[in-house]
Amino acid sequence: MVAGQLPELIVNGAMISAVYALIAIGFTMIFGVGGVLNLAHGALIMSGAYIFAVFSRNDMLGLHSALAFVLTLGVIAVLSLALYEVLVRWVEENPVITFLSTVIVAVIATEAVLTVFGSPTMGMSLVSRNSVNLAEYGISTRIRWVQILGFVVSWIAIGLLWYYITQTDDGRSILAASMSERGAVLTAVNLHAVRAKTWLIAGTLAGIAGIFLGAADGATPQMWLNPLALAFIIVVIGGIGSIKGSVVAAYLIGFLEQFTVTFIGHEFRGILSLILLLLFILYMPQGLYGREYVHD
Questions:
Q1: pTM for this structure?
Q2: With helix as H, strand as E and coil as C, how does the chain read?
Q3: What is the full per-residue pLDDT of the chain (296 aa) written as tens digits?
Q4: How far is CA 223 from CA 62, 116, 220, 254, in A?
Q5: 91, 101 Cβ separation under 8 angstroms
């Protein structure tokens, strides 16, 4: 019975891990470059879901889902950049004030959504609601098209980001700033521009994640709490500031979560992830790829 459930676990784990990776990469990029623990990242994820719903639902603006997808990413990216330029850049030298500022932004955003849309789950459609039956391949599960599209888009986004970071001068400046701000300054890197681009990219990734989470399960004002908590766990396990570590840890946590749901019970969904986090903090606090991040 256990062996028969493994293929289903692997498929479902791969699907959800792809979205977790996007959330964690955005979260770790902002912390790696600016040292900001950005709780408002969760509010951007939630906003992505609701803005896409406003653009795409027939009882609202009714735009084609592809156009709504692109417009939503643009709006969330601009909101993320505005958050940095209007608020964070003026307080970022004080980590405590910066952290509390992002908490306040997240709370205000949640209350605003509650006021405008209420607490019921808001449904939305990105692609066909049909699913693919994998029974003919010996796997007793069905995958929804939104999960497949989320997996594909996630890896396209990760691939593009990886190319940008490793193959372009702009991208290398972000990597340099994440490893050593002092070294980056000495090589004439404009730190303000690097941080602004990082918030823009992180916002875009949060928007993608929000759209797929909303399209899969609907949007609620608190939908960002669990993904952001998992992103924190993923970033610590992967190594703070490491994109590669975030991707690897996202899949580790995603599969662990699916294992827990399948073999232990849904109510224990996050328990093994927390145990793993505790073990890493005790015995491997730098994470899997923590050497990429160097304190000045």
A1: 0.90
A2: CHHHHHHHHHHHHHHHHHHHHHHHHHHHHHHHHHCCCCCHHHHHHHHHHHHHHHHHCCCCCCCCHHHHHHHHHHHHHHHHHHHHHHHHHHHCCCHHHHHHHHHHHHHHHHHHHHHHHCCCCECCCCCCCCEEECHHHCCCCEEEHHHHHHHHHHHHHHHHHHHHHHHCHHHHHHHHHHHCHHHHHHCCCCHHHHHHHHHHHHHHHHHHHHHHHHHHHCECCCCCHHHHHHHHHHHHHHCCCCHHHHHHHHHHHHHHHHHHHHHCCHHHCCHHHHHHHHHHHHHCCCCCCHHHCCCC
A3: 556 677 778 888 888 899 999 999 998 889 888 788 898 999 999 999 999 999 999 999 999 999 999 999 999 999 999 999 999 999 988 989 999 999 999 999 999 999 999 999 999 999 888 888 877 777 777 889 999 999 999 999 999 999 999 899 888 888 888 777 776 777 777 888 999 999 999 999 999 999 999 999 999 999 999 888 888 899 999 988 788 898 999 999 988 988 888 888 887 888 888 999 999 999 998 899 875 444 44
A4: 23, 16, 5, 17
A5: yes
Which amino acid, 288?
L
For tokens 């669990």, the residue is 226
